[in-house]
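To: structure subgroup
Subject: Chain for Friday's discussion

All,

I'm putting the inputs and outputs inline so they're searchable in the archive.
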Amino acid sequence: METYKIILKNLVSQQELPLLIEVDEAEKTENIIIRAVFDGHEVIVFDYGYFSAFQKFRDEILLLGYGIKCNGSLPNAVQSNMMSATDKVYLVELGKKAELKNIVCIWDYAEVSYFPNTKQQNDFVEKWFNNLN
């Protein structure tokens, strides 16, 4: 079980608050399980892939009116199939291939001004993929 300290941003008041999350990184089951308790809510999600579990978690947090200020919340965060069991993603740019130097931890702090949901993030990834040279 890993714990990560992340920053949530209230999408209405713009107030930021710290949150401690727990991640079972396929230690007890074959799934990645992400859990957090805050503001009277318990959010628990799971998925076989790490980034897809993160996306479910992020979408639940968005529905509660908060964004997560971390690399995984950036619209250009992409995870390859070979990375699916890890907390790593690429931060890609349109027209450029993913490079090792662009690998970051999903949970590391990032200054995020726009908080996309999974569909919006997947739309960017499709656009990126279709624009590779």
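Points worth raising on Friday:
The radius of gyration is 14 Å.
The beta strands are 2-10, 16-25, 32-38, 41-47, 66-68, 77-78, 88-91, 103-105.

D.
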